[in-house]
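Sanity check

After download, print the first record. It should look like this:
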Amino acid sequence: MWLASQLDEDERARVMDALPSETRAIVAQGLAYPEYSAGRMMARELVAVPAYWTVGETVDYLRAAQSIPDEFYDLYVVDPRHRPIGKVGLARLVRCKRPQRLRDIMDDENLTVPVTADREEVAFLFRQQDLVSAPVVDGAGRLVGVITIDDVVDVIDEEAADDMLRLAGVPDTDLYRAVKDTVRSRIPWLLVNMCTAIVASSVIGIFEHTLEQIVALAVLMPIVAGLGGNAGTQTLAVAVRSLATKELDADNALQVIGKEVLVGFINGIVIACLIGPVAWYWFGQPAIGLVIGAALVFNLLIAGLMGSLIPLTLEKFDVDPAVASSIFLTMCTDSLGFFAFLGLATLILL
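Expected structure tokens:
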């Protein structure tokens, strides 16, 4: 089914026509589900047994059946409507005596996955509940498939790689794509970045007179921007990952933001105490050390605030934080950092 989903319509039609009718129906049903849903991930080969069977009947069935999967972890106990009501692990099954009923030994904690659930939600459920497998049910609650841990590991790897690419402004791996397609996918975010860079440049332009009189400020400006950007990226990486793993949400957002602001403030004080004396010695003016130190404290505080607040805001408006966060973060740390640095310099040095 995965291969069929990667083909264009004409090629897919030719492949489907060549499949046996039973296989074609299964593939067509799978392709009808949303692209990144549990329905696309699940396997249809599973073992479902009624609750009134004994362990002996179940073992005999497994030995005689020709259509059971080659590898499986759990047997799913279903009611007469084929809705899962529990499961029995293979290890437990082989340790129980033959006369015991499945209803007496099954695990009745009924964790099911809707067939339309997003694959990230499935991965989160497996991670939170330490699952090895989980049944997939349709809208009526009937058992239609199973998802196993090996499928989820693949999803986690793909999502991690996808987030890494998106943080860099690259929407998809394009190692083997044509040049024009690669350019078309990357240029939009570069244009957005250009606009945010113009905003930062405009802030510098406001203090053109200050820069003309104190050239040392131009030498120190990259330090303010670079440290603010790096500090913000650290916070941003933690926030985006926490959103992806559901560890960060509206309930603990204020606590996380407060922590990151405090961390930024403390880091700013430490860095200011180190770079301030260096700037003083470099240019022979203690006021310059004071200005860059105060600007760094402010900018690292802003980096902690914006690095956590921007992803949360984008998530609230259904925008992927991994794609757009870094651009807006850079705009904030550069613009506000330059404004604080040059503004303080104007007030103190002129």
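If your output differs, re-run the checksum step. Summary of this record's structure: The first helix runs from residue 2 to 6.
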